[in-house]
Amino acid sequence: MDLIIWFFEAVARRAPTSIQVESTRYLVGAVGTWLVVWVLLSGVLAPRKIRKPTRRAAQIRRELLYSGSTVIVFMVMGVFVYEGAAQGWFRFYSDVSDYGWAYLILSIAGLVVFHDAYFYWTHRVMHHPKLFRAFHRVHHLSKNPTPFTAYSFDAAEAAVNFMVIPLYCMIVPTHDIATMIYMWMMIVRNAAGHCGYELMPRGWTKNPILDRFTTITHHDMHHEKMTGNYALYFTWWDRWMGTEHADTNARFEAITEQGDRTIRVADGQRA
Ligand SMILES: [Zn+2]
Ligand SMILES: [Zn+2]
User: Fold this and answer.
1) Distance from the CA of 189 to the center of ligand 1, in angstroms?
2) How much distance in Å is there from the Cα of 100 to the middle of ligand 2?
C-alpha cells in the first residue's frame, strides 16, 4: 500500500513537467511530420504516395485520441524510470566524462539495435491471436497510416513499447542525453515511417548497405497486409525469420521510379 501511495505522489509531483516533455515530443514529431510531408511538400511528394488516399478525418481523430492516451502512459512510465533511477535501479550516469563522448554516441547506436530487436519480437508476439485484441488491435485500425498513427496504441501496447528504455538502461550505462536524443529520433522516424509517402531515394534497396535499413514502404505494407514486415529500423530480423514480404523491394523501386519519373515530366513541362 505504501508503495502505491509513494508512486501516486511521485506521479502527481512529476506530472506537470513530464506531460509537457512527452506531449511536446509528440506534437513536434507527429504534427511536424504531418506539416512537412502532408502540407508543405504534398505537391512534390504526390507521385510518391504509397497507396491511394482513403477517408482520413475519422481515422485521424481516433489516432489523436489514442496518441493522447499513449502520452499519458509514457508520462506515468517516465515517472517510474525517474524514481527508479533515484533508487539506483538503472545504470544512468550524469557526467559525460565518466565514459566519454564516443561511448555516449555508441550507447545511442546500441539502443537503436536493441530497440529494433525488442520491437521485432514484441511486435510479433502481439500479433498472436490470443494477444492481438488486448495489445495491438488499435494500431491496426489504421489500415492506411498517417503520421498520427505513430503513437496510436492500446495502453497495454504503449506500456510494452516504453519498456525498451528501462530494460536497456538496466543493462547498459546510459547518459540522460542519450535517452533524450534517442526518444526524439524515435518519434520523428516513427512518424515518417507512417507518413504514407516513400521518402527514401530511388535505388535504396539495390545498395547493399542501405538495403539493411527499412523503407517507408516496408512498414506501410505491414499495415496493408496486417502481417509480415514486423521490424522497425533494420531489415535483418524479417529476413532471418522469413517474415519479409517477398515483393517489398520491388514495390519500393516501382513507387520511387514512377514517382521520380512523374516529377521529371512535371519539371520538363514547367521548363
Ligand atoms: Zn502489427
Ligand atoms: Zn505501424
Assistant:
1) 17
2) 35
- State residue 83's pLDDT score: 85
pLDDT single digits (tens) 222-236: 999 999 999 999 999
Cβ atoms of 134 and 156 within 8 Å: the answer is yes
Separation between Cα atoms, residue 124 and residue 197, nearest integer Å? 25
Whole-angstrom distance, CA of residue 168 vs CA of residue 178: 12
Q: Would the pTM of this model clear 0.85, i.e. be above it?
A: yes
193: CA distance to ligand 2 center in Å? 8
CA dihedral 203, 207, 209, 215 (to 10 degrees): 30
Q: How far is the CA of 10 from the centre of ligand 1 (A)?
A: 33
The residue count for the chain: 271
249 CA distance to ligand 1 middle (Å): 19
268 pLDDT tier (thresholds 50, 70, 90): low
pLDDT in tens, 14-37: 888 888 888 899 999 999 999 999
Which residues lie closer than 8 Å to 191 by C-beta, 6 or more apart? Answer: 29, 30, 32, 33, 34, 147, 148, 150
